[in-house]
Amino acid sequence: MACGSSGGCSGCSSASTCGSAQQQPQDLTAKLNPLSSVKHVIGVVSGKGGVGKSLVTSMLAISMARKGYKVGILDADITGPSIPKVFGVKGKARVDEAGMYPLPSKGGIDIMSVNLLLENETDPVLWRGPIVGNVVKQFYTDVIWQDLDYLFVDMPPGTGDVAITVYQSLQLDGIVVVTSPQDLVAMIVEKAVKMADLMQVPIIGVVENFSYFHCPDNGKDYKIFGDSHIDEVLKRYNLLLMARLPINPDIAALCDAGKLEDIEKTGLEDVVLPQ
């Protein structure tokens, strides 16, 4: 109920207890470390697991780094971190009174992941949602991200606690939605799209992964997961299809070897991100 003051809440002696003041929206935006400098923050999301979201995050980072941009990856998939593995990054992140320091990949991509803080990379992370959300915020506020053009946030799949934390706390310039051809996945993509809309975060575009398999023997393309249904979703929400990526066993081998940066082409070379 409004107090009827013509001057608004500012300067009012009752602002701390007034119902009108308490109804003001709370700013949950987290602040970067004072020593950090990040021009653009891009979230990479998926409505479900198993569609190659972390792979797309990694290849987006590689693509932008090859264009001369300074790039970092914040691995927000706390309970299923995979970013250090595909880049072959090992060791412990350094921490001092100023903050935490990401570890660089061979190609100069700065990476922060919970696996760089654990005693053993195979140790499970048995934390409940609020703790996981706070760790993600700390990776944004406490890590010193130096002179980055793009910070990619590899978000956990779905629309749970951590996704909400990222949307509310990190200053996202937009998100990239990763999907695969199945009709079921297309339905779940709609959930991710609607969540972004509710959180008022722009959708940069959609990447369809596992779109087809190109047979090296006969040169034909085979739709292993059937016909794509993503065009219907794109049309319904007026979204941009950024790329269709094939199933490529060579990429899987590079990931297993920690040498993804050795990939010849990512398939995302023509992707345009906010400048």
Automatic annotation (TrEMBL):
<comment type="function">
    <text>Binds and transfers iron-sulfur (Fe-S) clusters to target apoproteins. Can hydrolyze ATP.</text>
</comment>
<feature type="binding site">
    <location>
        <begin position="47"/>
        <end position="54"/>
    </location>
    <ligand>
        <name>ATP</name>
    </ligand>
</feature>
<protein>
    <recommendedName>
        <fullName>Iron-sulfur cluster carrier protein</fullName>
    </recommendedName>
</protein>
<keyword id="KW-0411">Iron-sulfur</keyword>
<dbReference type="InterPro" id="IPR044304">
    <property type="entry name" value="NUBPL-like"/>
</dbReference>
<keyword id="KW-0479">Metal-binding</keyword>
<dbReference type="GO" id="GO:0005524">
    <property type="term" value="F:ATP binding"/>
</dbReference>
<dbReference type="InterPro" id="IPR033756">
    <property type="entry name" value="YlxH/NBP35"/>
</dbReference>
<dbReference type="InterPro" id="IPR019591">
    <property type="entry name" value="Mrp/NBP35_ATP-bd"/>
</dbReference>
<keyword id="KW-0408">Iron</keyword>
<comment type="similarity">
    <text>Belongs to the Mrp/NBP35 ATP-binding proteins family.</text>
</comment>
<comment type="subunit">
    <text>Homodimer.</text>
</comment>
<dbReference type="InterPro" id="IPR027417">
    <property type="entry name" value="P-loop_NTPase"/>
</dbReference>
<keyword id="KW-0547">Nucleotide-binding</keyword>
<keyword id="KW-0378">Hydrolase</keyword>
<keyword id="KW-0067">ATP-binding</keyword>
<dbReference type="Pfam" id="PF10609">
    <property type="entry name" value="ParA"/>
</dbReference>
